[in-house]
């Protein structure tokens, strides 16, 4: 098992639009493609409160590549993402990391 840590840094004031896109569209596509989310978080303290961090669980990188690429190339997803950004861009920058649990991790 590996965990993907993703952080979306939003354009100023656009975090609510990102929340809306996840609840109304993205999570449905995650379900459609079998993408398993562990959880989502926003910052209470730190340099910004305009970011969303979430974790995805994968069996391996090959599974991630197959499912993520299918999701990203889905024409309906592409249309919904474009519509959500018709007014203004939502995410300015994305960071992601792939994490492997240690032998003493509660999540393995």
TrEMBL record:
Domain of life: Bacteria
Domain NIPSNAP: 3-105
Gene3D superfamilies given in the database record: 3.30.70.100
SUPFAM superfamilies: Dimeric alpha+beta barrel
Record-linked Pfam families: NIPSNAP
Name of the protein in its database record: NIPSNAP protein
Organism for this UniProt entry: Pseudomonas abietaniphila
């Amino acid at each position: 098992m590996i965990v993907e840590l993703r952080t979306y840094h939003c354009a100023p004031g656009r975090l609510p639009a990102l929340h809306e896109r996840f609840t109304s569209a993205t999570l449905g596509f995650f379900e459609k493609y079998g993408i398993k989310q562990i959880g989502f978080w926003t910052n209470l303290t730190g340099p910004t409160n305009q970011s969303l961090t979430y974790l995805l669980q994968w069996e391996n990188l090959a599974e991630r590549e197959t499912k993520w690429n299918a999701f990203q190339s889905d024409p309906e997803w592409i249309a919904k993402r474009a519509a959500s950004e018709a007014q203004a861009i939502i995410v300015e920058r994305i960071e992601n990391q792939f994490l492997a649990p240690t032998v003493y991790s509660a999540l393995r």
